[in-house]
Amino acid sequence: MITGQGEQTFSVLGLRYAGDPAPATLGAGKSRLILESARGPAYVPSGVVRVDAELVSETKPAGKRQTTFATLPLQDKELATDTTTVWALVFALQFLLVIELAAVWAFRRVGLRKTWIVFLPVVTVGGLFVADQLVRLLPNLL
């Protein structure tokens, strides 16, 4: 692995799942790498899997540690979702509803061909806006 301190070599200790005990605490001058990923079917994660690896190359000097698991914001922890933008999804759905109502009105007023030409790109943009907001609510390990 290439880090801010240079190239490092790690040896995999094993896999851990939620609830499994963590490896023993490291002594001075040692380092560990933990890789996290989701487990379960695609787009519907059901848990977390961790790969623990221990540094086997020479330890390089490091600066002050920037983050720890305890100091991570909630939205950066595994399987977390950021619900602070739910309001944007509400507005996106309202926008899509207004577009659909306008398309129905235009269909009755000017006919199918003109309505199709005007509203196809507008409905596509509205649908992409809604999809974008929905994806933001998915768990962060996808």
Automatic annotation (TrEMBL):
The UniProt keywords, alphabetically, are:
Membrane, Transmembrane, Transmembrane helix
The UniProt transmembrane annotation reads 86-107, 116-135
**Protein name per its UniProtKB record:** Sortase
This chain's source organism reads Cryobacterium breve
